[in-house]
Specification:
Order of helices and strands of chain B: EEEEEEHEHEHEHEEEHEEEHEH
Number of strands of chain A: 13
Strand order of the largest sheet of chain A: 3-2-6-8-9-10-1-11
Oligomer: heterodimer
CATH class of the largest domain in chain B: Alpha Beta
Number of helices of chain A: 11
Distance between the termini of chain A: 54 Å
Number of helices of chain B: 7
Number of strands of chain B: 16
Shape of chain A: globular
Shape of chain B: globular
Radius of gyration of chain A: 22 Å
Radius of gyration of chain B: 19 Å
Number of domains of chain B: 2
CATH topology of the largest domain in chain B: Rossmann fold
Structural class of chain A: alpha+beta
CATH superfamily of the largest domain in chain B: Nucleotide-binding domain of ferredoxin-NADP reductase (FNR) module
Number of domains of chain A: 2
Order of helices and strands of chain A: EHEEEEEHEHEEEHEHHHEEHHHH
Structural class of chain B: alpha/beta
CATH architecture of the largest domain in chain B: 3-Layer(aba) Sandwich
Strand content of chain B: 25-35%
């Protein structure tokens, strides 16, 4: 694998160079404590050290609100909305974020292939960057290291403040072409970065824990603290559920059909006309969210559908921690497996 | 895991654009339900199987999943019967002959007809559960010699809520259909059976080895009907149920119709009971 050294001071020039491919999207500061993926206008404003953006990169592939068609109420006709596709390069993406895109690929491309998602995805390139885990990251517990490079074209691994650039695909090599401020180097193993937050079991063992956790009292306990706002799913990089709504203009002559992010944590998510709600209690919904992350898709695909970014926990207004719930379930499972005589 | 490089460009399709269909017939058949006949453009056939659904679209309001009520043996048009129970369906009430409705689909899995050929078909319909089952019933009647007995149990709350009354009369008059109707509450003129639908089951004379049951009704009905059929020794895998969920997109993407890990719009809405028995959220 080719590897080059890149000085931190040369990164803005590198981003400018990458702009030759197309629009560059990278992390920026927003307010005092938040980060966001935005189109780069000034490469010196790109943030290289950040914990996590508020919204995940999915917003670039499945926009929070997307118009699918415009309709006329006068003659009940519609015109499809064609999205404009231009090459985009995503710079400064963490490993768990890339892994979330690979999982979204599965969700949007399995069965019938969704056109808009596919076209946006096909015209994208990804340049990764290493990160320093904070108290919320637990990616390693779901099998994703800081240096996991799958899916990237290039990856910047920080070493003593500067970077080693890994070339991971033909597209990645093409992106480097003509950029002079790099020098060939030998890849080094970076020491000293470790995850503080952990799930106690290897993720392979979690589907079995969940198999026996369906009727656990833990769901009701978590639900008693949950405010049902849906922040966990909106900020989750692998959650993709959406709703479809028609918006009519004020003249009531025409309008548009839009899809927007939805959340299985919201009370009406599984409700049908007539009022029947198939997941009526908050505890039903909390359970469903975690089963979607660690059991249902995992049984089929062998991977957790959680990438350990820590967003659902960091942004939960009630302080509910996903890894803590999983660890509690593990604890409960261990207790249940102890022989009766030693059970406390 | 499906990957980007596994997908060919031509596979990427627009999943959410409706086909505009002409309403060729419409009739309010009870206080709550309206029947519609629709035609696809250019004489196309909908190409559904009994038990499948379509997404019906009224611009300005939205879409809702609606079962197809006609038999696939009728090619030139298809029929829907819609209860006015929400915002969209109340707007659809105003649609009349000559209007245009958007349709996407057909979606989901219907009845596996190849497994039903040669079998006795026991239809258990509660309320508007008769709407999708009418597709199956009429398919059986259109291919009568391919099936054994056709037994229909149909329950409604009151006599005035009975759907498709002309067809019910016709089925009653046929000697190759065994139709049993019950209502929860009779009225002055009702001379038929009174009681919930399960009260029709104990006296049925079923050949369990050759009978396939098809059940559709309100959510509360399934457990009790399945229990009654089990007491008749009908094996799990000879029972099919059609489940209602909020199938918003119809193509396995939006997430609304999940029953535990299963998408109702993809693996259902018609399920074999043995497949959904382990799913806690199913019944």
């Amino acid at each position: 694998m080719e590897c080059f050294s890149l000085l931190r001071s040369d990164v803005p020039a590198f981003i400018d160079h990458l702009g030759g491919f197309g629009e560059v999207v990278a992390p920026h500061s927003k307010g005092e404590v938040s980060y966001t993926f935005e189109v780069v206008k000034d490469s010196s404003q790109v943030i290289l050290d950040y914990n996590r953006t508020l919204l995940p990169l999915k917003k670039m592939f499945l926009p929070p609100v997307e118009t699918m068609l415009n309709f006329s109420l006068k003659d009940a006709s519609f015109t499809p909305v064609e999205i404009e596709i231009s090459p985009r390069l995503f710079f400064g993406v963490h490993s768990y974020e890339m892994q979330s895109i690979l999982r979204l690929d599965h969700s949007m491309l399995s069965g019938k292939v969704e056109s808009n998602y596919f076209r946006r995805r096909q015209s994208s390139r990804f340049v990764g960057i290493s990160f320093h885990p904070d108290e919320f990251h637990f990616s390693e517990s779901v099998g994703i290291t800081i240096e996991e490079m799958e899916g990237f074209d290039l990856f910047l691994n920080e070493i003593e403040g500067d970077f080693q650039v890994y070339v991971l695909s033909k597209n990645g090599a093409a992106l480097l072409k003509g950029f002079e401020y790099i020098e060939s180097t030998n890849p080094e193993v970076i020491e000293g970065r470790s995850f503080k937050k952990k799930i106690r079991y290897h993720y392979n063992r979690l589907p079995r824990v969940f198999q026996y956790a369906y009727n656990s009292p833990i769901w009701a306990e978590v639900a008693s603290r949950c405010v049902g706002c849906g922040a966990c799913t909106l900020t989750c990089p692998t959650c993709f559920c959406f709703d479809v709504n028609d918006e009519v203009t004020v003249t009531a002559e025409d309008g548009m059909r839009q899809r927007s992010w939805d959340s299985c944590m919201l009370a009406a998510f599984a409700e049908v006309a007539g009022g029947e709600n198939f997941r009526e209690k908050t505890s039903n919904r909390t359970r469903h969210r975690l089963f979607r992350k660690f059991k249902y898709i995992t049984d089929e695909e062998g991977l957790p559908w959680c990438v350990g970014c820590g967003r659902c926990t960091a942004f939960c207004p009630a302080g509910i921690s996903l890894p803590d719930i999983v660890n509690e379930l593990i604890g409960e499972d261990e207790k249940a497996q102890l022989p009766r005589s030693v059970r406390v | 895991m499906k990957r980007l490089q596994d997908v060919e460009s031509h596979e990427a399709v627009d999943l959410y654009f409706p086909t505009m269909c002409k309403v060729t017939g419409a009739k309010q058949i009870t206080d709550m339900e309206k029947w519609y006949e629709l035609e696809m453009p250019n004489g196309q056939s909908l190409g559904h199987s009994p038990g499948q659904f379509v997404e019906v679209s009224a611009f300005g309001i939205g879409e809702a999943p609606i079962s197809v009520s006609s038999s696939p043996s009728k090619h030139s048009s298809f029929e829907l019967c819609i209860r006015q129970v929400g915002m969209l369906t109340n707007v659809l009430k105003k649609y009349k002959q000559g209007d245009v409705l958007g349709i996407r689909g057909p979606f989901g899995k219907g009845y596996p007809m190849e497994k039903l050929f040669g079998k006795d078909i026991l239809v258990v319909a509660g309320g508007i559960g008769l709407v999708p089952l009418r597709s199956l019933i009429n398919y059986v009647l259109d291919n009568r010699k391919d099936f054994g007995r056709l037994i229909i149990l149909y329950g409604a709350k009151t006599p005035s809520e009975l759907l498709f009354q002309e067809e019910l009369a016709e089925w009653t008059s046929r000697d190759d259909v065994e139709l049993h109707i019950t209502v929860d509450r009779g009225d002055a003129s009702w001379k038929g059976h009174v009681g919930v639908i399960t009260t029709l089951i104990p006296t049925l004379d079923l050949q369990t080895s050759t009978t396939i049951a098809a059940i559709t009704g309100p959510p509360v009905m399934y457990k009790f009907v399945v229990m009654s059929l089990k007491s008749k020794q009908l094996p799990d895998d000879q029972i099919y149920l059609s489940l209602e969920r909020r199938m918003k997109c119809g193509v396995g993407k939006c997430g609304h119709c999940q029953i535990n890990g299963v998408y109702c719009c993809q693996d259902g809405p018609v399920f074999n009971y043995s497949d959904i028995k382990p799913l806690a959220e199913a019944l």
